[in-house]
Amino acid sequence: MNMMRVKEIETLPRAGLEAIQLQRLQSLVHRVYKTVAPYREKMDAAGVKPEDIQSLADLKKLPFTTKDDLRDNYPFGLFTVPMDDVVRVHASSGTTGKPTVVGYTRGDIEMWASVMARALSMAGVTKGDMIHNAYGYGLFTGGLGAHYGAEYLGATVIPVSGGNTKRQITIMRDFGSTVLLATPSYALNLADAMIDAGVDPEDLKLRVGIHGAEPWSENMREEVERKLGIRAVDIYGLSEVIGPGVAMECLETDRGMHILEDHFLPEIVDPDTFEPLPYGEPGELVFTTLTKEAFPIIRYRTKDLSRLIAEPCRCGRTLVRMEKVTGRTDDMLIIRGVNVFPSQVEHVLMGVEGVEPHYQIEVNREGNLDTMDVLVEVSEQVFSDEIKVLENLTRKIQVEIKDLLGVTARVKLVEPRTIKRSEGKAQRVIDNRKL
Amino acid sequence: MRVEQIAVFLENKSGRLAEITEILAENGINIRALSVADTADFGILRLIVNKVDLAQKVLKENGFTVGKTTVIAVEVPDQAGGLAGVLKTVEAEGLNVEYMYAFVNKSGEKAVLIFRFDDMDKAIQLLQKAGLTLLSGEQVCSL
Predict the structure, then answer these.
(1) Residue of A nearest to B99 (CA)
(2) How many DSSP H helices and E strands does chain A contain?
(3) A352 touches A393 (CB < 8 A)
């Protein structure tokens, strides 16, 4: 990676950066209007033409894109290139049975690797590092996204993925891992497992941890730093935008992650009126991708709550920062790094004959790991006087939840009407995690 | 010759069993036999009562999940080998016991075995052929 070039881009005066953003935005809007019918229809309905985008302020004329749009055009309907040009797809949780699918051209993979590499270097990672990548490899963007970034940077990457904690510790010690990429809860889990295994984290070469894909607090950061003896920094990304590498904390900042604004254009909007808000105001984070080919996205409502920080950073980068995500505007849960919507659980229950969708999700953090209990009210249709019938039922629900959501849940049968209904509407989620 | 049985879903939390027995008592329902099957997370209470439909109704009204099934009641002399004789009869034919429980009648001479088999019709046939005494619901309740 050409570090001189990176530095130049990341420290551009705002006017210079905005000129690049505008030019890229205009070209994007022309392209999607021409090639993607759903975008064209929405723009026509809103009475906006590509030519109407004359400044970055005109961005607000464009319609938003939401997860519903992705679902309505499942799986590939919002791709702008023929499938021949798509070299990879990833998927994340949709709000019901269907996942949200995203695609990448060869150019997209290269761009993604470059932004991820830049994110890594914001945390002081160089080609001399040994990167222990414990993000899951697969449909989830975390593992492969971080992997390509690490290679792009020229570092050595260990594609260890998630799980098998004991082996991870052996590898970390024997290979001399210097950088840990993992969800914050898994990082804590590793730290505790090291203590159990009699491995002193001080004897490892670990220097920095890059943690994201789930919400974590400053307290958790201090715990990770103390237990592993490292600097722990925050990374942000989402598959609808690209995956990891959308924003990254530098080592100098006192708060917030730098958004890689030459590729991802951020906005904060009022969660109720959807009107754009000025820098510093809290609201819903919205992203427009500026350079993606296969699956660009315009004004994607992330439903993440944050705020943008315009003040210059001590590191010298002029890229705007986003504050750590403080919550969601919807009911999405993040369980062990996996996005879970209560509606998905409902979808599974509706598919099991006789089960009524009276359920409640209880989330707890036991030790460092999130657990999810699904309480299901026993209806007369599924009730049996035989234990094995009811046990088969809980097992079936558990398997289907695991299949659809990728998360293991404990299914508990409860008596009818035990799930509290407030004002006639059941409270679906009880999140007991203290973040 | 089947006997109606009520089954009630029980969450493992204290006081539920007492609540059920109170509801039944208030409605003048007499429990003739019962068993509780439990797992780590839940239990199933099985009851044979003198007023089956009323019991089902009042428990439902009180928010319980109630099911009605049929079981077989076999009367055997209350002496060693009573149960063994019955099981031998049905198992030789490959029938499985889903569950069973037992009680001794008031005089203490006879024991009543309550069975749920995987194939109820065949079980009744076999037991009757073997000359065993099957009781009706009324007979069970009047013991």
Answers:
(1) A386
(2) 11, 23
(3) yes
Q: A385 to chain B: which residues are within 8 Å by CB?
A: 5, 7, 44, 46, 67, 69, 99, 116
In chain B, the residue whose alpha carbon lies closest to the alpha carbon of A391 is B39
A304-326: per-residue pLDDT in tens? Answer: 999 999 999 999 999 999 999 98
> In this complex, do B44 and A385 lie within 8 Å of one another by their Cβ atoms?
yes
Terminal CA-CA length for chain A? 36
Please give the residue range of the domain that contains residue B126.
70-142
Closest CA to B59 of B6, B98, B112, B130: B6
Contact call for A383 and B7, based on CB within 8 A: yes
Q: Any idea what the CATH number is for the domain that residue B42 is in?
A: 3.30.2130.10
Domain-ending residue, one of B26, B45, B68:
B68
pTM: 0.78
Name the class of domain A335-431: alpha beta
pLDDT bin (cut points 50, 70, 90) of residue A99 is confident
User: What is the dotted CATH code of the domain comprising A71-329?
Assistant: 3.40.50.12780
The reply to whether residue B65 touches residue A414, judged by beta carbons under 8 angstroms, is no
Kindly state whether A385 is in contact with chain B, defined as any CB-CB distance less than 8 angstroms.
Answer: yes
Q: Which two tokens stand for residue B56?
A: 């089902």
Residues B85 and B130 in one domain: yes
**Same domain assignment for residues B19 and B60:** yes
Query: Are A380 and B46 in contact (CB < 8 Å)?
Result: no
Q: Are the CB atoms for A49 and A262 separated by under 8 Å?
A: no
